[in-house]
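Inverse folding, one chain.
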């Protein structure tokens, strides 16, 4: 019994240390599917997009403006590509022909220790972050649709941001999430990582 337990524990530790995930990213018409991917450093993207779409990294400012000027980062034409992201941070990308239609998405790449990198983000300011039972969202107008997603991409909470900017997250368990803001048409407006710690 003890032997079995020790073996399982060793396997769990080995798995946690070496686990790498490949996330599929494709397009449905002029939308990236999914348009938010939460991942860890070293995880990969398996990109499969049809012509004439591209997956082109841009600056945050360009992304917000629905522009299509490359920032010199990754820039994949239509087809199938697999690539890893080995530095933590938020990566913004668009489709060059359709950026003006808000065909865009983000990769939220976290460092392997489960603590998000702190970085300036003019789009969404979450406070506190790590959060406990509620989080204050600044940087978007009240009335916007807010989604809270697990690392897997599953939406676990959806609400309309009130005047006070507060979102009740007391029903969610501790862990890493992302907060995603969409407009009335469902277009991705902003995304930021959030940790819940208690
Ligand atoms: Cu496109």
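Residues assigned per position:
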């Amino acid at each position: 019994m003890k032997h079995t337990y020790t073996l399982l524990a060793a396997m769990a530790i080995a798995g946690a240390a070496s686990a790498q995930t490949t996330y599929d990213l494709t397009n449905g018409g002029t939308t990236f599917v999914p348009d938010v991917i939460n991942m860890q450093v070293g995880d990969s993207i398996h990109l499969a997009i049809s012509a004439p779409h591209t997956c082109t990294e841009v600056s945050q400012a360009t992304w917000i403006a629905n522009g299509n000027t490359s920032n010199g980062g990754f820039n994949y034409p239509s087809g199938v590509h697999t690539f890893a992201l080995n530095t933590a941070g938020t990566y913004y990308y668009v489709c060059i022909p359709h950026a003006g239609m808000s065909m865009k998405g983000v990769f939220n790449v976290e460092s392997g220790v489960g603590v998000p990198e702190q970085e300036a983000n003019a789009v969404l300011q979450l406070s506190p972050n790590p959060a406990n039972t509620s989080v204050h969202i600044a940087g978007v107008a009240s009335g916007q649709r807010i989604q809270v997603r697990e690392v897997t991409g599953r939406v676990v909470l959806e609400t309309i941001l009130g005047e006070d900017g507060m979102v009740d997250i007391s029903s969610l368990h501790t862990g890493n999430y992302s907060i995603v803001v969409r407009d009335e048409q469902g277009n991705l407006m902003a995304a930021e990582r959030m940790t819940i710690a208690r």
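DSSP finds two helices and 16 strands in the chain. The first helix runs from residue 2 to 18.
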